[in-house]
Known about the structure:
Order of helices and strands: HHEHEHEHHEHEHEEEEEEEEEHEEEEE
Structural class: alpha+beta
CATH architecture of the largest domain: 3-Layer(aba) Sandwich
CATH class of the largest domain: Alpha Beta
Distance between the termini: 95 Å
Number of strands: 19
Shape: elongated
Number of helices: 9
Radius of gyration: 25 Å
Number of domains: 2
CATH topology of the largest domain: Rossmann fold
CATH superfamily of the largest domain: SGNH hydrolase
Largest sheet: 8 strands, antiparallel
Amino acid sequence: MKNTVFQHLFVLLAGLCVTGSVVAADLSLPANDEGLPGQGLIVRDGWFQKLWRNKRTAWAKAVEKDQHAVVFLGDSITQGWGDNLGGAFGKLKVANRGISGDTTRGVLIRLKEDVLALNPKAVVMLIGTNDLGRGMEPGPTAANFKLILAALKKHNPKMPIVLCAVMPSSASKRRPADKIKQLNALYARAVWGDKQVTMVDTWTLFADAKGDAVKAEFPDLLHPNKAGYAKWAAGLRPIFATLGLLETEPDDFKLEPGFESLFNGKDLTGWMFRANAKPNAKPRNTKPGGFGRPVFKEDIDFTGKKQSIDGRYVAINGRLVVTTPVEGRRFQQMWTTRQFGKDFILKLEFRASPNADSGVFIRKPQLQCRDYALAGPYKNLKHYKQQDWNELVVTVKGGVAHCTCNGEVLEAAFKVPPSGPIGLEGDRGQMEYRRIRIKELD
C-alpha cells in the first residue's frame, strides 16, 4: 500500500515544472470533435496540430511566471506580435496566447489552461478572421465567441475584457469586408450593455474606403507589419490608461499666467449634468443595437465626485475621461456649473480612441472633437496625432470663436451665444480630456 502511495506521489512530482506549475501530460488537439464545446470549425491540419501542441506545452511551463498578466488572446495576428508584444506597453506584464491559424472554437477549447489558469489582470481578445477564412458564417462564429465571453466572465466577473473588432482583410483572402462587418456587428450586439467589456474599433482603424486592409500596414492583406502593430498598440493605450494599467501617475502640468483650470484633475468639481427632461421622455437604450440618450429631470452637481452618476465621465490621474458607452453609442453632455459671458481663450488637450466621436460645447454650439483621421469632419488635418494628445485652442471674441487643433484652423468664425457654459459631449468610443483651462479677456 505504501509503495502505491509513493508511486503516485512520484508521478505527481514528475509533472511539476521548475516554476511549480503542473504540466499536463498531453496538450495536443483532441483526436475528434466529440464532447468538445462550441460548434463548427476545428483546424486539424498537420502543421497546426504541431504548433498547437508545442505552444501550449511551452505555456504550461510558464503558468506561474505569467500570473496576473494582461493576456492577449487570438490567432496569428496576435502570435506575430511576439512574446512581449514588441515592448509596446513598457513595463506592463503581458502574456501572448495567440496561435497562428486558430479559430473561435479552438480558443474555446484551450481557454482554461492557456488563459484562465493565469488569473489575468485583463484579457485582450482578437479572434474570428480564420473562421471566416475557412468558410464559417458569422452566426456560428459569434455563438462561439459568446461562449468564450461567458467563460471569461464566470472566471472573474470583475476582470476587464478588451474586445478588438476583427481587422479588415480582403476577399482575395476569403475574408470579404461584408462578412467581417457582419461578424463585428454580432460581436457588438453580444457585448451591448456589458460594463465588463470595452470594444475597440480596430476595423475602422485599419480599413480603406472599400473596407479592406491596406498593404502599407498589412502586406499580405491579413497580417500587420511593424507599422500595423504600432497602430494597434496606440489604439489600445488610451483604454489601458482608463483601466488603470498604464499612465498611473498624476499629470504635473502647470497653468500659464492668467489661466484658471476648469478641471482639477482629481474629481468632477465644477461640472454637472443639466436637466434635459421633456414630457414623456424616456432613455433610448432599451434593446441591443440601440443607443443611449439619458434623461435627467433635474440638475446633478458632481462637486467632490470622481465620476458621474452613471460612470460615463470619470476623473483619472489628471484626465477627464468620457468612457466607451456600453450601448456602443450614447449621446450625452456634461457641463461646467459656471457660465462664461466675457470673451475668453479656452485651451485643452484631447486623446481619442479609434473612431471615437465627442465634442466641446462653446457656450452652447458644439465644436466637433473626434478621432479626426477616421470620424471627421476635419479628416485632412496635417498635424493631428491619432490616438495621441492634441491641443485644442478656442478664442472667443464678440460672439465668434476661432478654433484650432495643434495650430491648424478648424473653424475660423464659429458663431456662439453671448453667454453660456462649456460642455463635453459623449457619443461613441472613448475620449479623454486634460489640462482644461480658460483665460477670460477684458
